[in-house]
TrEMBL record:
It comes from Collinsella ihumii. The lineage of its organism: Bacteria, Bacillati, Actinomycetota, Coriobacteriia, Coriobacteriales. InterPro entries: P-loop_NTPase. SUPFAM superfamilies: P-loop containing nucleoside triphosphate hydrolases (SSF52540). PANTHER family: ATPASE DOMAIN-CONTAINING PROTEIN (PTHR34301:SF8), DNA-BINDING PROTEIN-RELATED (PTHR34301). This is AAA family ATPase.
């Protein structure tokens, strides 16, 4: 057998060849696109630490949307986002309608905002909301929906708040519109605390939990077999175990195992063991070392105090262990939450949010 292409995608922001798990989120949103205005799933927020697959999920859903008669525009919460949404919507609408025309409506003059006969200048007058309204009116005539995806949400961006507020008005008008958002836990919490857009609190929220092993196994198998290779149940189980349900690690493990002997049909036990070692190393150098270097002395002391607990820690216990006031400990907690290193598990309770970081710190401590 000649060496086949490595089908794994250990790169941030890339939709994997096979999505492991996430079935519930995907089917709820696709059903919502099918049923249209009024379905609560049309306003959804994905919340998760780095590498949990937020961007991949948004991109996957955006790609599927067209099959349900929706155009999808995708942005990150950065300055210029609103204009970007408008420009992309216009562009996608033109494409969609002209392909529709070729198939069903040959000869019918579509006109309007994105039709050929429309003067560009007249579509660009008015503020963002009026221009979007005009565009949505046009889409409505063709029964096309508009799905907006916003990645890396940040409440500090005024445009984020403006988008959410205008979106609420569009929803109120019964428009065929959807808003899927994704962000790090502390960014999403800050967004939801904003009084001006409190309606976002009613959006459906999904936490990007670890993917169960059986779903990881299934995705690994499908990915490997699609390229004409095989791995035994035992080997697949070993790869899933090493991934710990963390999407980025699934891709690292898959990719490293694959490239041991890409010319062989069967993936061997040795390929699996070597690949896992290399993937662990990648995880360390690409994610954990970088995170570690960004931490201050105080951050590290806080995290080391967490290691005494088997699982989640009480901030009050940590303060006690460090011999500091609870206010002082809360300061470090806040910093670490903002960096996405830890996450809240209830009032005054925190745990590690970056997979493998606990083990990494234990290793660092042991090696001192
Ligand atoms: N459901 C999944 N199954 C398998 N692999 C996945 C899945 N979702 C994402 N991945 C892979 O995991 C990696 C990280 O995904 P992604 O970039 O979407 O994470 P993210 O949550 O957006 O991270 P960040 O917060 O850093 O932007 C990528 O290599 C991607 O291909
Ligand atoms: Mg991302």
């Amino acid at each position: 057998m000649t060496a086949s292409r490595n089908p794994f995608t250990p790169t941030f922001g890339v939709v994997p060849f096979v999505m492991a798990g996430r079935d519930e989120q995907i089917s709820n949103i696709l059903n919502a696109l099918d049923s249209g205005p009024g379905d609560p799933n049309l306003s959804t927020i994905f919340i998760g630490a780095r590498g949990t697959g937020k961007t991949a999920l948004l991109m996957y859903l955006a790609r599927q949307a067209q099959q349900y008669g929706w155009i999808a525009v995708s942005v990150s919460a950065l300055p210029g986002m609103l204009e970007d949404i408008y420009e992309q919507s216009l562009e996608k609408a033109r494409e969609f309608v002209s392909s529709e025309n070729q198939h069903h409506l040959t000869g019918v003059n579509v006109g309007g905002v994105f039709g050929v006969s429309w003067e560009r200048s007249s579509s660009e007058t008015g503020n963002w909301r009026t221009r979007m309204t005009r565009l949505l009116n046009e889409l409505e005539e063709h029964n096309v929906g508009l799905l907006i995806t916003v990645d890396e949400v940040r409440v500090t961006l005024d445009e984020m708040v403006a988008l959410a507020a205008t979106y609420q008005l569009f929803v109120g008008e019964g428009r065929r519109i959807g808003l899927l958002m994704a962000g790090l836990p502390h960014q999403v919490s800050a967004l939801l605390r904003n009084e001006n857009i409190s309606f976002l609190r009613r959006a459906v929220q999904y936490h990007m939990e670890r993917i169960p092993d059986y779903e990881v196994i299934d995705a690994l198998r499908k990915t490997i077999e699609a390229e004409g290779r095989t791995a035994s149940d035992q080997e697949l189980a070993r790869m899933a175990e090493a991934s710990q349900g963390f999407p980025y690690m699934i891709q690292l493990v898959g990719s490293r195992v694959w490239s041991q002997h890409p010319e062989m049909k069967r993936i061997s036990t040795q390929d699996v063991e070597r690949g896992i070692d290399m993937a662990r190393n990648d995880m360390r150098t690409r994610v954990l070392d970088a995170t570690y270097r960004e931490l201050s002395e105080g951050d590290l002391r806080f995290l080391e105090a967490m290691l005494e607990d088997e699982g989640a820690s009480r901030v009050s216990d940590i303060a006690h262990r460090l011999g500091v006031s609870s206010g002082y400990a809360a300061q470090y907690k806040r910093r670490l939450l903002e960096q996405g290193v830890i996450g809240e598990r209830g009032r005054g309770i925190v745990d590690f949010d970056i997979p493998f970081f606990r083990e990494y710190l234990e290793g660092m401590r042991g090696s001192e």
